[in-house]
Amino acid sequence: MIVVPLGVASATPTAVRHLPAVALWREGSVFLFDCGENAQMRMLQAGIKRSKIECIFISHFDVDHYSGLIGLLSTLQLQRREKPLRIVAPAGIQEYVEWNLKFSSVELGFEIIFIEVEEGTDEARVIDEDDYYVEARALKHRRYCLGYRFQEKDKPGKVDAEKATEMGVTEDQHFKDLKDGQDVTLADGTIVKSSDIVGHPRPGDSFAYVTDTEYCPNAVKLGMNTNILYHEATFSDSLSDKASETGHSSAKDAARVATEAQTKLLVIGHFSARYTNAHLLLKEAREGFYPAWLANELRPIFTDPTHERGIVKAKVELKDLTKDSGSSSNYSKGSNDRRGGGRKNFRPRRKSGGSNYRSNSRDRNSGYKSRRPDSERPASNDENRWNKDSSNRSRSSYRDQDRF
Which residues make Cβ contacts (< 8 Å) with residue 118, sequence separation at least 6? Predict the structure, then answer.
């Protein structure tokens, strides 16, 4: 499975962050958790096909979490979708969608299967398929809010092909039956037991989506032993009172949930617009739990880290960040070097003996840099290149005249 954050902002978008939405890719199907404004545009930019969406999960009815839903449904209609679409959300989602489609005179060419969770429900298995299920649990927010856990069911163990061949298994159908847990009978009457050939079942991958909540036991239950726990970190611990007042979590709360849930990887998102540098929140989260990552928009996160080689850059350690400036002096210096900033990267002007020319320093009286008059200014690189080309063209024209 691959998790792709599409929007990591909280409440309002910024120039670099979009409203909440997370896409989960699994075996060619896409599952969308929340659908903030511009979610479908971010899917395009991430290279995720909107036609592959199997189900949309809405956590609650704060506008920033579902404002992109109607536009996405309209786009799917324009793409002539025919496959049914499931929408899981608190009760009221069907009325909202049907009213908006009727008001906009949009007639869908595909069926929407609404799965509504009544307010007051503490937990429910909202989807149950042969190879996976989705569990919803109530979180602690100002209004009824759901968190979700996507869990693959146990996968069959690996077949010991070498041992099976030694026991006389040669047909492909026999290998398939053994993997499915069935004993097979060979042509000579020998019975080969599946338990002798197939290893123990392997646990499936899991992903938990927890947003807009204070710390609560249900958040821990959703994230228990997951491969990836996506948890909101709207505030830093210094604003814990603000977090409790608005029904949100701090980065420290997210680390606490991850520690108690024993998740393999914590990914924090849903950042307040007041934090232009979200690494402050990451530093705080890593003080309580490791490994923890920032949710970077459009950057894929794999449930199996071995698949990241060559696709996702290696994780780097953070340098110490000061609480006041948001970055240390070393970090700022490194940033300037990468951007080409810093005094050492400025090329000094070539000095001349002319009386009208001054060095590349500010005039102490005026505060402005002195500049050589245009009449004494040396030719630029473009001018030199043009003059050189003109000279070459002149010489070539003379040579051409000599030939004829």
Answer: 90, 91
